[in-house]
Write a structure and sequence with these properties.
The protein contains 13 helices and 22 strands. By secondary structure, it is of the alpha/beta class. The longest helix is centred in the middle third of the chain and has 22 residues, at about 290-310. Helix 4 (about 195-210) crosses helix 10 and helix 7 (about 275-285) runs antiparallel to helix 8. It has a nine-stranded mixed beta sheet, with helices on both faces. Bound molecules: xanthosine-5'-monophosphate. Xanthosine-5'-monophosphate (XMP) binds next to loops.
């Protein structure tokens, strides 16, 4: 079944991803493509949105899309740079703004009876982020809305289904942004709202069956949300032909290997747990440099996975939990599409499992959509709500060299911290949390005895995607209890500190 789809042409705005997500919140499928790589199957898209941009239409490096197959032929919504682009190249005038036009503003005028602004009232808050402004509208245009500082905050071009807005409906501070997108996409452009988790699941299962047929597929489970949801979808599609491998690298959280493995088995997955703790710890022995640790862990994983994949006869496919943000090609600060997609060069030197054909059932959806799909598939909400955890695990939270004893200490500390967050109802308010074992011994007194033991740092952050993060203001009482419990229960630790650094400049992980 074909769904109505929106094409979002990206001019490098920091908000382009949000546009796609907001459209999808309306249960309408959307895809982002660079402004200069308009898809050949343009007929498959029912409406087009032009994004904002860090560039100016007045600059030498103006980004020129070829809109010949779009303007006047499809409903078009131009946002910020897009609105200025239309104005500038259609007989209007764009000039630098006299006043600051960044942040919240309110619509002081809305054209009466205009379906584009249906159910949106005067005073509605919008989010502005631009340094140029549209002084004169293009030919055949009428102004639809204004703010105190921006007269031409919204306009339409008569004779075509073309609307343009200076503000950003995709940003949550534009309180009626979703309504506005709905007015444009559903009322004006007549798109159907039929893209739901259920329809996604149904279609993805069919697509997998068609693609892999009766072939065998291997998949590496990590305990995280993406690989789990991918596995459940594949399992529904091909059942026992899906072979999952879950590797214990010895750097997982306390008891995680056993508990997650049991959970997977309870979900009916055909999963093999491989405890390779010793191999990983041997490979890491004496290594202190964070990047060398990552390499050693990555290489050990590839060896273990390759060995296991070889034990399965006749596997033709490798399944991966890749999600949409990993595959979107976005426009970089220089105006060209930036290659965020990893290329498989040097195929000859790759391990055998990487020469398999690839199936990626989640490559069209965002993380929050993966969670919604997971919930619809009946996956345990606790598993779906888990904090992100890095692939190298505790290996990059033990600063300096790694030993089995250090892993044990950190697992104990981490378990006290994470269980405490859960007991206090704080876990879901935090985006990611964990403990770091520092290469520092400090003096303490316990009873009448002098101690000289390890120091641990606790870190809890708020974030949306891990790119930026703020430390969380955890209650003092919680920190006090947690610190007491760690020092009393974990042998080898006599000091606990709380990390109050934001990212940037401090990264979330200490290594
Ligand atoms: P940083 O430390 O760069 O982390 O602020 C941002 C997010 O990425 C995770 N992270 C990793 N994940 N392999 C991973 O799979 C890695 O080597 C790695 N390093 C950092 C980190 O946990 C956080 O969620």
């Amino acid at each position: 079944m074909q769904h109505d789809k929106v094409l979002i042409l990206d001019f490098g705005s920091q908000y382009t991803h949000r546009s796609a997500r907001r459209v999808r919140e309306l249960n309408i499928d959307s895809e982002i493509h660079p402004f200069n790589k308009i898809p050949h199957n343009i007929q498959d898209y029912k409406a087009v949105i032009l994004s904002g941009s860090p560039f100016s239409v007045r600059g030498d490096d103006v980004l020129h899309p070829n809109l010949s197959q779009i303007r006047g032929k499809k409903p078009l919504l131009a946002v910020c740079y897009g609105a200025q682009y239309l104005a500038h190249f259609s007989g209007g005038e764009v000039a630098p703004s006299n006043t600051r036009e960044y942040g919240r503003a309110n619509l002081s005028f809305i054209q009466k009876g205009e379906p584009f602004f249906a159910h949106i009232n005067q005073g509605s808050q919008v989010w502005m982020s631009h340094s140029d402004t549209i002084k004169h509208l293009p030919e055949n245009s009428v102004v639809l809305a204004s703010t105190h500082d921006v007269e031409n905050a919204a306009y339409k071009i008569e004779g075509e289904v073309t609307y343009a807005i200076q503000f950003h409906p995709e940003v949550y501070h534009s309180t009626d942004g979703k309504q506005l997108l709905k007015n444009f996409l559903v009322t004006i452009a007549d798109l159907k709202q039929d893209w739901t988790p259920d329809s996604f699941i149904e279609e993805t299962i069919e697509a997998i069956q068609e693609k892999v047929g009766h072939d065998k597929v291997v998949l590496g489970l990590s305990g995280g949300v993406d690989s789990t949801v991918a596995a459940v979808l594949l399992n529904k599609a091909i059942g026992e032909n899906l072979y999952c491998i879950f590797v214990n690298n010895g750097l997982l959280r306390k008891n995680e290997f056993e508990s997650v493995l049991n959970q997977y088995k309870g979900m009916g997955l055909n999963v093999k747990g491989v405890d390779a703790t010793k191999k990983f710890l041997d490979a890491l022995s004496g290594i202190e440099d964070p990047e060398k640790k990552r390499k050693a862990i990555g290489n050990a994983f590839i060896e273990v996975f390759d060995d296991e994949a070889h034990k399965l006869n006749d596997v033709k496919w490798l399944a991966q939990g890749t999600i949409y943000p990993d595959v979107i090609e976005s426009v970089s600060a220089t105006g060209g599409p930036s290659a965020t997609i990893k290329s498989h060069h040097n195929v000859g030197g790759l391990p055998d499992f990487m020469k398999l054909k690839i199936v990626e059932p989640l490559r069209a959806i965002f993380k929050d959509e993966v969670r919604r799909v997971g919930a619809t598939l009946g996956i345990d909400p606790e598993l779906l709500g888990r904090h992100p955890f890095p692939g190298p695990g505790l290996g990059i939270r033990i600063l300096g060299d790694i030993t089995a004893e250090k892993v044990r200490i950190l697992q104990e500390v981490d378990a006290i911290f994470i269980n405490g967050l859960k007991q206090w109802g704080l876990y879901d308010k935090v985006w990611q949390a964990g403990a770091m074992l520092l290469p520092v011994n400090s003096v303490g007194v316990m009873g009448d005895e002098r101690t000289y033991e390890k120091c641990v740092a606790l870190r809890a952050v708020e974030s949306t995607d891990g790119m930026t993060a703020d430390w969380v203001n955890l209650p003092y009482e919680f920190l006090q209890k947690t610190s007491n419990e760690i020092i009393n229960k974990v042998k080898g630790v006599n000091r606990v500190v709380y990390d109050i650094s934001s990212k940037p400049p401090a990264t979330i992980e200490w290594e």
